[in-house]
């Protein structure tokens, strides 16, 4: 391959557990790919990498790194893209500041995160950090819509080896509580932009005295784009949260708040902050000024708050007094005293609600005891999904994974579709007044009367992504013959606009009878009924439900979302293969550091790898890639058939063992195939060496477990130390190189 040419496949460098796994798996992938003349390159999208590439002017020459995310962002718009994307951290402010502190300690002079920027320089630094924060990576890479499902082998395995499910009692007090009015759902306005309205729009705030300030200018709205605006009243939110706390107490359940502060990086930390404030309301009433002087920012959570006020005995006593009055609190880690309100990034709704539901509606309280929980999800746009799932299981008992069918997902996400609350179109109202969207032609598209602090958000979905999404749904339904439901609520302004696209498209294609359009609550009930009966359903959803449902259903059906196949057919012809639908599993890193056991399951990577090679074969006519892909699929099947996935317990096979088996099955499949004799000949001795070395390799891998290890960092680990930890088998390394 010529210098400077893009490698055939790009594998992303990420954070936490998947990055540790890459230290062991990537050398294997590269070795196998190289034998077929395929180059696998890497691009750094980790939080640490994003910080370093954003601030070259603060770094020494030799410390500077390229802006890989920007490069990838360009590549995914071309037909050449073939990217394997692992889960990366969507950093909350506490995660971002921890990463900054670590880099500084390592000698990278990156600036501090300005919490309250005042100078122009601080404001510029803050703006740059805000672009790294939250879901900054996925919207750049997702130039296509998503097709997520369980591979047949994975589903078969889950049915044969059903995971444990908590029992549901019909008298369970677990429930979902949401606002009844004045939330994003209630206030939503939506319109599809006409040719006369197209052009650069503005978002303006109009104060009570008529003074107009521009919150955002140059907001491009094309013809056919669905543009929404809505807001949540923080007065109503505060009243609701206070009531929910009281309600939890009278129910005798525990209080839990479920948000998505990472993806919805502007709106949801604010909502989370109001919950912290509501929980500690009497303390804020009495000591509000003192706490402000101590730099308390409720949006960073209770952990940060306690750290700042711990020197003030009066405030600490007041906090203790409140705690004694409050209902039980849902805990992230009861042993360590980490509560639901500790940091905004600990309890993430798409992972936390399925965990509660899978456990039969149970959470864990401060004493480490299981109990029913009041799941507080203030906004109603998607809360009904969880409410209905809870109702369904209370009435019907837990799902049986040994017989349940599957819910696949076709998700609208291309070109930053429905990026609610996360992008530069979310604002806190600066004062009482009006926030409005003013179109290029001067017309006001949407306007809302707001009070100071109200959380106002706007978002868009472009026409081409909507049409591509509908086509993807038609293709998936045709290929599977499954039940197919568009999860759209005609009573919701945004969804009503999408329905205007969907209905005629189904009519034109002559397939209207094969699809249903249902509001999320009804769609949840219908899909659960379908899979309970052993049949399959396709959930065709917007961006948020894509994210939520591809955790909810896989966690119930397969025990984890990490094994999902997640394909993004890029609109310009490339392929993006996301590995699983889970995140970067910080708890796995803790275990590895404490006892040198990595329970990360690379099944998502294995599945994505097969798809990526097959895609290379299809798009570039690379026959060897097709052989590698088919053999990778056989190896994946082998991992499942012979139960080679990692165990959770120290002293038992872990992630590294599973990679040995993957390499072995992959080599054996390559050696056994007859499509490419040269590849078979090349891999026969590798397969033999791996088989002959089994005892030595497994022994070397087992021998290292049970002790603490040092990775030389958390966000920016030392590559040499990490490789030493993740590749401890000299026998295996000698074969892989
Ligand atoms: P998470 O990383 O999905 O982890 C939650 C739990 O799911 C893990 O502790 C683990 O359970 C299980 N899990 C996830 N992937 C697994 C795998 N491959 N093998 C085995 N178990 C797996 O969710 P989170 O703690 O909410 O989020 C952590 C970070 O991931 C956050 O910074 C978030 O921003 C990021 N995230 C990224 C993406 C993405 O890039 N696509 C998606 C979601 C979240 P056990 O601990 O019980 O083993």
What's the tally of helices? 27
Please report which band the strand proportion falls in: under 5%, 5-15%, 15-25%, 25-35%, 35-45% or over 45%. 15-25%
For the biggest sheet, the summary is: 10 strands, mixed
End-to-end Cα distance, whole Å, is 21 Å
Q: Compute the number of strand runs.
A: 25
Point out poorly predicted stretches.
none
Task: Tell me the Rg in angstroms.
Answer: 26 Å
Globally, the shape reads globular
Query: Percent helix among the residues?
Result: 40-55%
Main sheet strand line-up: 2-1-3-25-24-4-16-23-21-22
Bound molecules: NADP nicotinamide-adenine-dinucleotide phosphate
Give the class from helix and strand content and strand pairing.
Answer: alpha/beta
Average of per-residue pLDDT values: 95
Structure report:
The chain is built from 27 helices and 25 strands. The strands form 5 sheets. Strands 2-1-3-25-24-4-16-23-21-22 form a 10-stranded mixed β-sheet, with helices on both faces. Strands 5, 10, 11, 14 and 15 form a 5-stranded mixed β-sheet that branches. Strands 6-9-20-17 form a 4-stranded antiparallel β-sheet. The longest helix has 20 residues, at 16-35. Among the domains are: 184-232 and 418-461, no CATH class; 234-401, no CATH class. The protein has 737 residues and is of the alpha/beta class. 46% of the residues lie in helices and 18% in strands. NADP nicotinamide-adenine-dinucleotide phosphate binds at residues 87-90, 262, 345, 348, 351, 560, 562, 580, 582-587, 599-601, 604.
């Amino acid at each position: 391959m010529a210098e400077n040419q893009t490698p055939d496949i790009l594998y992303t460098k990420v954070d936490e557990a998947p990055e540790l796994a890459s230290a062991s798996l990537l050398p294997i992938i590269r070795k196998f790919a190289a034998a077929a003349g395929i180059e696998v390159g890497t691009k750094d999208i980790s939080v640490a990498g994003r910080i370093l590439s954003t601030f070259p002017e603060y770094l020494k020459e030799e410390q500077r790194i390229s802006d890989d995310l920007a490069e990838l962002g360009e590549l995914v718009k071309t037909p050449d893209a073939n990217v394997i994307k692992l889960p990366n951290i969507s950093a909350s402010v506490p995660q971002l500041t921890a990463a900054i502190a670590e880099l500084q300690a390592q000698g990278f002079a990156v600036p501090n995160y300005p919490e309250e920027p005042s100078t122009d320089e601080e404001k510029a630094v803050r703006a740059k950090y805000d672009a790294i924060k939250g879901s900054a990576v996925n919207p750049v890479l997702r130039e296509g819509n998503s097709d997520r499902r369980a591979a047949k082998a994975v589903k078969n395995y889950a049915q044969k080896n059903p995971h444990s499910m908590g029992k549901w009692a019909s008298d369970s007090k677990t429930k979902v509580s949401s606002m009844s009015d004045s939330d994003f759902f209630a206030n939503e306005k939506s319109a599809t932009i006409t040719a006369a309205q197209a052009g650069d729009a503005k978002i303006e705030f109009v104060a009570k005295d008529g003074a107009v300030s521009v919150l955002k200018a140059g907001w491009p709205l094309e013809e056919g784009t669905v543009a929404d605006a809505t807001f949540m009243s923080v007065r109503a939110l505060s009243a609701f949260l206070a009531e929910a706390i009281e309600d939890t107490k009278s129910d005798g359940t525990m209080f839990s708040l479920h948000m998505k502060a990472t993806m919805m990086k502007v709106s949801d930390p604010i909502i989370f902050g109001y919950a912290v404030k509501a929980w500690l309301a009497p303390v804020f009433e009495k000591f509000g000024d003192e706490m402000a002087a101590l730099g308390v920012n409720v949006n960073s959570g209770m952990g940060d708050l306690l750290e700042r006020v711990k020197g003030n005995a009066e405030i600490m006593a007041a906090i203790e007094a409140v705690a004694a009055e409050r209902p039980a609190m849902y805990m992230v880690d009861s042993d360590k005293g980490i509560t639901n309100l500790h940091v905004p990034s600990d309890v993430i709704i798409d992972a936390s609600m399925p965990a509660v539901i899978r456990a039969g509606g149970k959470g864990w309280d401060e004493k480490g005891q299981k109990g029913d929980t009041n799941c507080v999800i203030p906004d109603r746009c998607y809360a009904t999904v969880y409410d209905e799932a809870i109702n369904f299981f209370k009435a019907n008992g837990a799902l049986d994974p040994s017989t349940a069918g599957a819910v696949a997902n076709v998700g609208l996400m291309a070109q930053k579709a429905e990026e609610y609350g996360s992008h530069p179109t979310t604002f806190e109202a600066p004062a009482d007044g009006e926030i409005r969207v003013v179109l290029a032609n001067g017309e006001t598209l949407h306007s809302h009367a707001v009070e100071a602090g109200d959380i106002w958000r706007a978002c868009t979905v472009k026409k081409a992504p909507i049409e591509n999404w509908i086509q993807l749904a038609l293709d998936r339904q045709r290929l599977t013959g499954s039940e197919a439901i568009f999860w759209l609520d005609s009573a919701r302004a945004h969804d009503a606009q999408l329905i205007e696209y969907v209905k005629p498209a189904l009519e034109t294609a002559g397939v209207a009878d094969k699809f249903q359009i249902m509001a999320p609550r009804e769609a949840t009930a219908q899909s659960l009924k379908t899979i309970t009966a052993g049949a399959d359903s396709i959930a065709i959803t917007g961006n948020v439900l894509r994210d939520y449902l591809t955790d909810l259903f896989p966690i119930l059906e397969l025990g984890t979302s990490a094994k999902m196949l997640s394909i993004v057919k890029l609109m310009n012809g490339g392929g993006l293969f996301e590995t699983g639908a889970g995140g970067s599993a910080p708890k796995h890193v803790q275990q590895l550091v404490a006892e040198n056991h990595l329970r990360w399951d690379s099944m998502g990577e294995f599945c994505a790898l097969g798809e990526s090679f097959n895609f290379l074969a299809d798009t570039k006519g690379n026959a060897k890639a097709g052989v590698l892909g088919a053999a990778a699929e056989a190896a994946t099947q082998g991992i499942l058939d012979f139960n080679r996935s990692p165990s959770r317990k120290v002293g038992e096979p872990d992630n590294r063992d599973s990679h040995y088996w993957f390499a072995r099955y992959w080599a054996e499949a390559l050696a056994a195939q007859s499509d490419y004799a040269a590849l078979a000949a090349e891999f026969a001795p590798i397969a033999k060496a791996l088989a002959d070395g089994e005892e030595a390799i497994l022994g070397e891998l087992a021998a290292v477990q049970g002790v603490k290890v040092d990775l030389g960092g958390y966000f920016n680990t030392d590559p040499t130390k990490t490789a030493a930890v993740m590749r401890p088998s000299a026998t295996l390394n000698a074969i892989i190189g």
